[in-house]
């Protein structure tokens, strides 16, 4: 089964990176936008916005941000009420994105909305963020009809000469290629992984690097379908395009794996690959307790959070 968007559509940007991407998607799809963050600097776009007030804490934890957002569930639900499809953009490497993604997606799910989420995972050297991002992703996937995972770290593993900023630029551009086709195409339900390459003139080399990036995240036998977005494919010989589809089909070597291609115009040629995954990915290991079945987890219904409690206690001498 596949996810198909229904209008009206609302794109929700969470945190700094999520808000920036949401602004780009709003322009691409012509939909409405909602920005949510604990940092006022993230909310500098002309759009509907919600500030998670964590004052007077200057450097709030992700647990506190989440706790404060739970206190305004009604306001968030009111913003989502009039829309059929919710697109969630969240950088799970950031505090706001990882804290708010489970909350916003859970509210949308409870309201019966169609939810597609895009989650950006941290680099592995950001060790203090890996666990929290893994837990947030697990909840985000459970609440979403379709989840697209963008793993900057896999791109960096495949291209160690790139800087973190370069990785962000490349994967954000790949994400926009997928988003730009949402109104005219459908995506597989559940978990999808987005992979690409740095700018390369040879599309076959770009495809190879995209597959290498994918293998950093999931084993070949877990792949159920693959969609190749060939940017600048209008300038690529048809024989090469046909050879690429045959190559991908041969690599996955599973009769049930469906491989399709979408050719778009562009000045530079490049491959962006979206693959549907069934089973474990590297992200399941981010949470050491992820192997525990949901039915055996006592606190699954409400995500972990903390709240501000001001207690006036008399000093006891």
What is the compact description of this entry?
This protein is an alpha/beta fold. The protein has helices at 15-29, 62-70, 73-80, 95-110, 127-143, 152-158, 164-179, 203-215, 238-252, and strands spanning 2-3, 9-14, 32-37, 48-51, 85-91, 114-121, 146-151, 187-188, 190-195, 223-231, 258-264, 270-277. It has a domain at 8-144: Tubulin/FtsZ, GTPase domain (Rossmann fold), CATH 3.40.50.1440.
By secondary-structure content and strand pairing, the structural class works out as alpha/beta
CATH superfamily grouping of the domain at 8-144: Tubulin/FtsZ, GTPase domain
Biggest sheet overview? 10 strands, mixed
Q: Any idea of the CATH class of the domain at 8-144?
A: Alpha Beta
Low-confidence stretches: none
Helix content: 25-40%
Number of strands: 12
Task: Examine the coordinates and then state which fold CATH places here, giving the name of the CATH topology of the domain at 8-144.
Answer: Rossmann fold
CATH architecture of the domain at 8-144: 3-Layer(aba) Sandwich
The residue-averaged pLDDT reads 85
Indicate the proportion of strand residues. Answer: 15-25%
What value does the Rg take, in angstroms? 20 Å
Read across the widest sheet, the strand sequence of neighbours is: 4-3-2-5-6-7-9-12-10-11
Order of helices and strands: EEHEEHHEHEHEHHEEHEHEE
- Terminal CA distance reads 67 Å
Shape: globular
Instruction: Enumerate how many helices there are, as a single number.
Output: 9
């Amino acid at each position: 089964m596949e996810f198909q968007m229904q209008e009206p559509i609302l794109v929700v940007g969470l945190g700094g990176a999520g808000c920036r991407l949401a602004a780009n998607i709003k322009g691409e799809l012509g939909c409405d936008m909602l920005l949510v963050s604990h940092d006022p600097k993230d909310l500098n776009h002309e759009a509907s916005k919600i500030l998670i007030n964590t004052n007077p804490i200057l450097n709030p934890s992700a647990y506190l941000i989440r706790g404060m957002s739970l206190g305004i569930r009604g306001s968030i639900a009111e913003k989502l009420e009039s829309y059929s499809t919710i697109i969630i953009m969240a950088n799970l490497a950031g505090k706001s994105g990882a804290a708010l993604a489970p909350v916003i997606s859970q509210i949308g799910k409870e309201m019966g909305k169609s939810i597609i989420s895009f989650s950006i995972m941290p680099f592995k050297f950001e060790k203090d963020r890996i666990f929290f991002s893994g837990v947030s992703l697990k909840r985000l996937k459970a609440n979403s009809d379709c989840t697209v995972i963008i793993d900057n770290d896999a791109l960096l593993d495949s291209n160690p000469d790139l800087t973190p900023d370069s990785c962000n630029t490349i994967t954000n551009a790949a994400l926009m290629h997928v988003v730009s086709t949402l109104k005219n195409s459908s995506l597989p339900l559940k978990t999808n992984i987005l992979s690409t390459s740095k700018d390369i003139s040879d599309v076959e080399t770009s495809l190879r690097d995209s597959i290498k990036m994918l293998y950093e995240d999931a084993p070949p036998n877990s792949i159920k379908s693959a969609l190749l977005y060939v940017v600048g494919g209008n300038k690529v010989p048809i024989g090469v395009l046909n050879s690429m589809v045959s190559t991908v089909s041969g690599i996955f070597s599973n009769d049930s794996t469906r491989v399709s291609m979408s050719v778009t115009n562009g000045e530079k040629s490049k491959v962006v690959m979206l693959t549907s995954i069934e089973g474990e990915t590297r992200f399941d290991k981010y949470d050491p307790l992820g192997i525990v079945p949901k039915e055996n987890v006592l606190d699954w219904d409400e995500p972990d959070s903390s709240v501000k409690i001001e207690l006036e206690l008399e000093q006891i001498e």
